[in-house]
Amino acid sequence: MREAKPFSISNITVTEAYKMIKSNMEFYGVDTQAMKAFEIRLNDNLYKIWNRMSSGSYFPDTVNTVSTSGISTVEDKIAQVVIRLYFEPCVESVFYENSYWKCPKEKAVKAVETIRENCWKKDWVLKFQIKSLFENIKQDFLLEMVKCHTDKKWIPLYLQRWMTVQTLEKKEIVLAENVKTKSVKTKNLEIHKNEIIRPLLGNLFLHYVFDDFMDKEYHSFFWERNLEEGIIHCASLEQAEDMLKVLKTRLDYYGQELDQKETKIIYCKDAYRKDNYENVSFDFMDFTFQPRRVKDRHGDYLTCFLPAISEKTKKSIREEVRGWKLQLKSSKDIVELSKMFNKRIKHWIDCYAYFYKPEAIDALRYINRCLVKWVRRKYKKCKKKKKAERWLREVANREPDLFAHWKFGI
Q1: How does DSSP assign 284-351, residue by residue?
Q2: Dihedral of the alpha carbons of 167, 149, 86, 157, in degrees to the nearest 10
Q3: Which of 225, 240, 328, 388 could be stapled to 230 by a disulfide with Cβ–Cβ 3.0 to 4.6 Å?
Q4: Reported pTM
Q5: What angle do CA 226, 230, 232 make, to 5 degrees?
Q6: Is the CB of residue 169 less than 8 Å from the CB of residue 188?
Q7: pLDDT tens-digit series, residues 221-261
């Protein structure tokens, strides 16, 4: 890997990209069978990726538009991670703090706190979502933005080739829809869903289209953005309507449009803001912000505009728990189940129970219902539902740390 090449790309970075994908294949959308096939000749395949990228001969393989389980799929994903590892440090420092495109747990809590406080300061919110962001990005605009942040010529070169393949995929989706070939359509859409570098490029594009524009032209406004959705805090309904017009004009210039269903103006109604308006809630970053009844320090109830875990997020938690198939793990004991799943439960509590805890705990109690099914299958004496519930309650009282949500009551 020390041959003279037109582009200086480290073989160590290629190996690092492979290890990242290997450690989290589900996140990167890699099929186990494809990874096994790639690893049969691992060193040769990694050398092939490095050689093609360093020599300028790397082209994204269009085979993966119709097949998601080939070696070419793994190669392309590794190449994308390589590009991201080189390019992300170049642009991360220019992004604004209230642009939450890559939001770890600690930052997510702070973000929701900031939004909550801004909703208290301003009576109105313009919630917007951009429709088909990446499919409508003007490539010449985006590539110029990329060139402003790197002197490595191979990065815009390969990004342009990659975006050309994306355009071809989009055309094939339309063709698949026209001829009603469901299998091709589904695979194409899945590839679009799992792309690795799209969030970074999308955020760079919106940094200039929205974030930087707001900071320079409307510096007094509070705003937050999470990839293609965002909120602008306004002092009045008229101001929110004016900002909506400004936003439409700005996005139209860059070839973007708002999703009409997801874009709306919201009144932050509470005990002190009592006017009537059709929209008094909005979803953002897995939370629903709306008027909620809370008890103050004097023990009196009042209405505050607060965030809590959204119904969509609750549903995704229940779907993931169903995927655990606890009722089929009768060969395991309760301690083994705890070791398998408690880390994930703690993550959910850290993310969602910080705000309006009862809603988050309500979602996690679905785990108890699944555990009851496990008890009924495992123990003959607990075949009846009530006996299984009693057994689980006794264990929870005796060992409340087995599952993180048990400390809030079962």
Answers
A1: ETTEEEEEEEEE-TTS-EEEEEEEEE-HHHHHHHHHHHHHH-GGG-TTS-HHHHHHHHHHHHHHHHHH
A2: 40
A3: 225
A4: 0.85
A5: 140
A6: yes
A7: 999 999 899 999 999 999 999 999 999 999 999 999 999 99
